[in-house]
Amino acid sequence: MVDAPLRSVAARAQSEQPRSPSLTERRMERTRRQLAEMAARLFLERGYEAVTVEEIVAAVEVSRGRFSGTSHPRRTYWTKSSSMRPKR
């Protein structure tokens, strides 16, 4: 009967430990980062209006579906990269 409370305490302690990201989560984060970096680079080179989502995904070699599944709209990348925009 003493084992049940001990198991409960052990299970609670184990569930409170931070979980490391899974392989899938790490891959998705890497893809998000690559898309954001490429979008920022293309925006700086050619301007926001001149860059399409198709060009961003082609440069990173992912599908349009992957872009939609791992990111936000294109304008989000411009907002995120605003600190990298050249000063006028």
CATH topology description of the domain at 31-88 = Arc Repressor Mutant, subunit A
What's the helix-strand series?
HHHHH
Number of strands: 0
Q: Portion of residues in helices?
A: 55-70%
Count of discrete alpha- or pi-helical segments spanning 4 or more residues: 5
How much is the radius of gyration in Å? 21 Å
CATH C-level of the domain at 31-88: Mainly Alpha
Would you mind describing this structure in some detail?
Helix content is 68%, strand content 0%. The chain has helices at residues 3-16, 23-46, 53-60, 64-70, 74-80. The longest helix has 24 residues, at 23-46. The chain is rod-shaped and about 65 Å long. The N and C termini lie far apart (73 Å).
Structure, briefly:
The chain is mainly α.
How would you describe this structure in keywords?
0% strand, Arc Repressor Mutant, subunit A, mainly alpha, 5 helices, 88 residues, 68% helix, rod-shaped
Layout of helices and strands:
Layout: H1 3-16, H2 23-46, H3 53-60, H4 64-70, H5 74-80
Helix pairs in contact: 2-3, 2-5
